[in-house]
Amino acid sequence: MILYHFTALENVEVIKRDGLRAALTGDSAALIGDGLPVVFLCDTPTCAATDAETKIFLQRQQRRRSADVTPVISKRWLKSYTDAPLARFTVRLPSSDYKLKHYGRWYRANCYRVDGLPRPEFMLSDILMRRALKTWWIYFDDIPPSKIVECTTEAAFPLQTQMTDTDDQRQPKRRPARPASVRILPCTEDTRCTPDQKRTARRTARRGRCL
Fold first, then answer.
1. Residue 50 belongs to domain spanning
2. Which spans in the chain are helix H?
3. Each residue's pLDDT tens digit in the chain (211 positions)?
4. Residues facing residue 136 across a β-bridge
5. Based on the domain organization, do 208 and 140 belong to the same domain?
6. Confidence (pTM)
7. Does residue 22 share a domain with residue 62?
8. Domain annotation covers residue 176
9. CA 195 → CA 24, 190, 211, distances in Å?
10. Do 19 and 111 reside in the same domain of the chain?
């Protein structure tokens, strides 16, 4: 079975030498709870985010706008706050390996058995967690270098201009106002017009025209 692991370029040499090490720190601890250390993998060969995911990331950024919030600058679900390329390790593992678990199936079987796991209502409501339940895998051990078949680099996916969620773009577009029509009334008997102007005004009025 072919799976993928994305990481920063600074980790490449260590992984090539020692393999992928199972860990239970940071984000992995939040997704595994009080369980065993794991290596996170996915079955998608890219970390590019969908338009819907990127829109959610930008909306969260707007809600949390402050000096300590790192802006979203790349259209990807991993390390979207940087435009640095990522390393992609391709791993081949037997699908029958009992240490390899589909994260979504493992989570559903253990969400009420393992302490510290996110609640189901959060997992189903968060767009990134729905991706995790569908496409992520976990391996309950280290993965040796012999299981790594390829290491490539994936460039960042820059945000398109129309996807940046600025205050101006969130304002509803208004239709340009139509110029007001001005009707010029013809001369009448009450206005100060010359006799020729009055005769012209009467003929124009009879023809249904306006001067």
1. 2-157
2. 12-18, 27-32, 51-63, 103-110, 120-125, 127-135, 167-170, 195-206
3. 999 999 999 999 999 999 999 988 777 778 888 878 999 999 999 988 888 888 877 877 776 665 555 677 788 888 877 888 999 999 999 999 999 999 999 999 999 888 888 889 888 888 888 888 999 999 999 999 999 999 999 988 887 644 444 444 444 555 555 544 444 445 544 555 566 666 665 665 555 544 4
4. 42
5. no
6. 0.69
7. yes
8. no
9. 100, 12, 16
10. yes
